[in-house]
Amino acid sequence: MTDEHSPRPVPRAVALAYGANDAAPKVVAKGRGLIAEQIIDIALEAGVFVHESRDLVSLLMDIDLDQQIPPTLYRTIAELLAWLYHIESAQKSGLPLPAPPDPLASLTDTRN
Known about the structure:
Elements: E1 12-17, E2 26-32, H1 34-45, H2 54-61, H3 74-93, H4 105-108
Antiparallel strand pairs: 1-2
């Protein structure tokens, strides 16, 4: 049973792009509600993998469009990109998919 009066969480989404000549990934789209749903739908239709992390999205929502991610997020995003590369490799070779990284673990890792 669901409570009709309990608010449903509003979806949020952030899209990053990283080109060969870019110093760091950039925020290329972000939004809440319907806009977030459209960002996710477009990504899925284009075959782009969608990773869910409320904490990471919260951090990325504070970055202006067409701005690079801050250096504090470099390691976190690099780990996600490496994971995505491993997913693509596993899919091509028929191997099991790797477990996702904890996107905020590198932010709290004191061994940096």
